């Protein structure tokens, strides 16, 4: 009888490790309704169209996770009459901030190209938004309603928003991307500083993180600007310069709202 129990225990152990226990999650929350007040504020008139539900599978050591969640396309017209849209799903509650960031970057790219023409492939512009973490829709509304300006979006709205900064990367080390890779280190620094000054003339209160990758080893030089002024964040308590810079932005933004 003992052998039977041993075999049963071994069988169950193998069964568990094989990942054969299904675990299902169904996310049915109506995000357009939950975040409706926020969308009313930043989009004006808007519509939502639900698309097919998505099913994701993940096989773990013990469980097979099957997750079903809803998807929408949110559409609106901006102040210039242009039709705009972005994707939204309800898989994870706090990812609403991620979708707002993705849409901000999409609008930023379109507006930047309209303003300055096609951006060279060795330069990238990427906005970052610093808002407190929350899973509460009401708190999100209060913290974020004046951060995002989608209906009346403009480049200055991003460059001069105290809750945002734009990371501008200059990849001047790759010969495939630009013949500027042949410049000396000092020449590359001068070029980046010139372009940075041009940007600050247009947006004098910009929060900027300028990154220059200048050699084949991809060594990087970073320049930080807060409210249009050069700042020098230092590595503190294990935080790198960019993390300290983000804390400086949060601190300045907090005191501005006091």
Top keywords for this entry?
8 helices; 2 domains; alpha+beta; single chain; 4-stranded mixed sheet; 258 residues
Description:
This protein is an alpha+beta fold. The protein contains eight helices and nine strands. It has a five-stranded mixed β-sheet, sandwiched between helices. Strands 1, 2, 3 and 4 form a four-stranded mixed β-sheet that branches. Strand 8 and strand 9 form a beta hairpin. The radius of gyration is 24 Å and the shape is globular. The chain starts with a helix and ends with a helix.
Shape: globular
Rg (C-alpha, Å): 24 Å
- For the record, the count of structural domains works out to 2
* Mean pLDDT across residues: 83
Order of helices and strands: HEHHEEEHEHHEHEEEH
SSE-based structural type: alpha+beta
Helix content: 25-40%
**Arrangement of strands in the largest sheet:** 5-6-7-8-9
Task: Give the secondary structure arrangement, pairings included.
Blueprint (H helix, E strand, L loop, with lengths): L1 H16 L3 E6 L4 H4 L1 H8 L2 E14 L3 E15 L5 E7 L6 H21 L6 E7 L7 H8 L10 H5 L4 E8 L13 H18 L5 E6 L6 E7 L2 E3 L9 H16 L2
Parallel strand pairs: 1-3, 6-7
Antiparallel strand pairs: 2-3, 3-4, 5-6, 7-8, 8-9
């Amino acid at each position: 009888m003992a052998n039977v129990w041993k075999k049963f225990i071994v069988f169950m152990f193998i069964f568990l490790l094989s990942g054969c226990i299904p675990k299902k999650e169904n996310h049915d929350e109506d995000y357009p309704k939950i975040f409706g007040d926020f969308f009313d504020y930043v989009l004006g008139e808007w519509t939502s169209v639900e698309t097919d539900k998505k099913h994701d599978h993940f096989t773990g050591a013990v469980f097979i996770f099957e997750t079903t969640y809803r998807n929408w396309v949110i559409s609106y017209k901006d102040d210039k009459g242009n039709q705009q849209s972005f994707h939204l799903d309800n898989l994870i509650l706090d990812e609403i901030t991620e979708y707002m960031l993705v849409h901000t970057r999409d609008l930023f790219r379109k507006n930047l190209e309209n303003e300055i023409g096609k951006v060279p492939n060795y330069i990238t512009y990427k906005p970052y938004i610093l808002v407190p973490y929350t899973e509460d829709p009401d708190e999100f509304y209060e913290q974020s309603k004046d951060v995002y300006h989608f209906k009346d979006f403009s480049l200055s709205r991003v460059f001069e928003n105290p809750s945002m900064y734009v990371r501008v990367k200059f990849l001047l080390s790759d010969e495939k991307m630009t013949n500027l890779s042949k410049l000396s280190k000092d020449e590359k620094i001068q070029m980046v500083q010139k372009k940075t000054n041009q940007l600050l003339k247009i947006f004098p209160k910009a929060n900027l993180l300028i990154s220059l990758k200048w050699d084949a080893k991809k060594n990087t030089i970073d320049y930080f600007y807060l409210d249009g002024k050069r700042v020098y964040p230092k590595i503190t308590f294990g935080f790198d310069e960019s993390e300290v810079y983000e804390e400086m932005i949060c601190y300045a933004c907090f005191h501005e709202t006091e």
